[in-house]
Write a structure and sequence with these properties.
This protein folds into two domains: 120 residues, 3-Layer(aba) Sandwich (Rossmann fold); 96 residues, Arc Repressor Mutant, subunit A (Orthogonal Bundle), CATH 1.10.10. 41% of the residues lie in helices and 20% in strands. It contains eight helices and eleven strands. The chain is an alpha/beta fold and 233 residues long. Helix 2 runs parallel beside helix 3 and helix 4 packs parallel to helix 8. 32% of the residues are buried. The N and C termini lie far apart (44 Å). A hairpin with a 4-residue loop joins strand 7 and strand 8. Strands 2-1-3-4-5 form a five-stranded parallel β-sheet, sandwiched between helices.
Length: 233
Amino acid sequence: MEQLTILIVDDDHEIVRIVSAILKQENYNITTANNGDEALQILQSRLVHLIIMDVMMPKINGLLATVKIREKSNIPILMLSARTEENDRVMGLSMGADDYLTKPFYKSELLARVNSLLRRYIQLGSISDKKSSSVMEYYDLVLDREKKKFLVRGQAIQLTATEYKIVELLLGRPSKVFSAEEIYESVWNNDAFSIENTVMIHISRIREKIEINPKRPEYLKVVWGVGYKIEKT
């Protein structure tokens, strides 16, 4: 398999040095940028498999850069920030980030997040052409796991790797209610701890993409206090 490239975007040179050293030990190829503007330029000319993005940076900050990246790409984005407020985490995920890690962090936690995101991205078919089994179909929802395509009412919908895995999980068992913990542990491959907002925001992003009226969903439902399910109204 080809060596995977990770783009680290942070104006803190010490953080860039530390994160680069950790990931190089795992045989990842590393490229760096000091702000969102530099990151966007790199993405135009280089193949990158994952982005570690700081929030607060000069010129174009991490949130705005994430929005711009999501206009064209489903590349996984791990938001990295010194801020610990819940609102910052929610904002980053709402803008399109796949996961969020707060500074300071443990080496093991960083590697777990990176490896999990890359695994989902590769399985989605953005890198490899690995085949999986057949088509999953539920009314107007069609997930072609061989072609890695998701159709809603006949229209192709672009999902990030994280969103794809959530849809695949829920669509695999229509009407079954999955708790936020079950979804997180299955999709993120990590133990679930205080992750309700993370799952909720990804569910909201999926709903915006597939529902005619997200406030009155036809398919993706919340069972309050219990979890989430796909069930036709």
